[in-house]
Structures are given as structure tokens and as C-alpha cells.
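HOLO CASE FILE
Compound: flavin mononucleotide
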Amino acid sequence: MMDLFEAIRGRRSCRAYLKDAVEREVVEKILEAATWAPSPLNSQPWEFLVVTDQSVKEKIYTEAVRCKEWALEKSGWKWLGKYGVDFLKTTPVIIAVIGDPKGTGVDMFMEEGSTGYQLACGAAIQNMLLAGHALGFGGLWFTLFDKKAMRKILGVEEKKLPIGLVCIGKPLGAPGAIPRKSFQEKTTWV
Ligand SMILES: Cc1cc2nc3c(=O)[nH]c(=O)nc-3n(C[C@H](O)[C@H](O)[C@H](O)COP(=O)(O)O)c2cc1C
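Model generated. C-alpha cells follow.
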């Protein structure tokens, strides 16, 4: 089994997948890893929708294209125009992580409001990506969608929030290297 630090350093976002199906056993291992993430008061404010149906993937793709066009206009970021989301149609498995705003902590009384449940879902997503990588699969944390539109596509009740989509599959080629700033640059000891 891959060492934890090796998994953390080696994981890269994958945006091109082989069509090979991902075995249910693998998906279940990834989901189990997600459930061991920390959460406020151990509220475990996540639910998972495992998407393998091609027609649902096509709807997710259409929404991503629409959201990309909206974001391009809003931001003026030219690179967005070149960012393709075709891989959403060929990714073997897309796991939607749905957050429950009720599953939050003392933050609900604070000025910034309830953020804990979203952070917990983020921690679950990171566990999923690391577990997938350790098992030899590529993954991507995908958020280029309107939350309301995604709720409709996935049939999620209104009081819950689609936090992110996790794409999983065998990578098609090696994902590109992407640098990091050093922790020294990001750290002050006080
Ligand atoms: C909250 C969040 C949202 C993200 N949304 C997207 C997305 O919509 N599309 C995408 O291609 N990558 C998305 N990413 C992946 C980042 O682009 C990626 O993690 C970053 O560029 C660093 O690359 P690496 O994951 O290969 O280290 C997202 C990551 C996070 C944490």
C-alpha cells in the first residue's frame, strides 16, 4: 500500500480518463475513506450520489459548459475559453458529494455563519481523492456548476447543497505537473 506522504505528494488532478469501468469494490473503498473525514461534532454532513448513467453525465456536462460560458463572461478570464469539460462525458464514475447545512458546529452561531459542514465535505473529498490515487485511479474535484442546476439534475432536496463532484477513473496519460509554493513561504511561527 502506498505511503501516506507519497499519496499526498503524488496525487494530481486528472482531466482525461480511460473508458474502463471502475469496479464497485473500488468505489466503495473510496466512499469508506470519505466517511473517515473529520466533521463538526462528528455530524458527518455528507451524502454521496454515485453517477454512472450516461444520460446523467451528459446533463452534468451540459451544465458545466453553460456555467463555464457564464464564468467566462463574468470574469473575462481568457484561459477559461480553452478549458474543456468533455471528460465529464467519459469519466467512468462521478461521485456527487451533497452537504447538509444542519450538520455543522458552533460556527452556526458565529458571524460568518455555517461553514463547518462544507469544510467537512471538503475533507471527505480530499480523502476520496487520496484513496483513489492510492488505489491507482485518477480523480478530480469539480465545481464548475450552478448549485441549483446541479440539485435539479441529481434530484437533491432544496435544503441540501451539492458541494462538489468527484470524477474517478483510470488516467489517460500522466496528469501534468503543477508546482507548489513552499510551506516556508506560507508559514509564520508565532
Ligand atoms: C474547491 C475546489 C474546486 C475545484 N474545482 C475545479 C473545477 O471545477 N475544475 C477543475 O478542473 N479543477 C478544479 N479543482 C482542482 C484544482 O484546479 C487543482 O486542485 C489545482 O489546480 C492544483 O492541481 P493538483 O490538484 O493537480 O495538485 C478544484 C479544486 C478545489 C479544491
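CASE NOTES: The helical segments are 4-10, 24-35, 54-75, 78-82, 87-90, 116-134, 147-154, 183-186. The chain has eight helices and four strands.
CLOSED: yes
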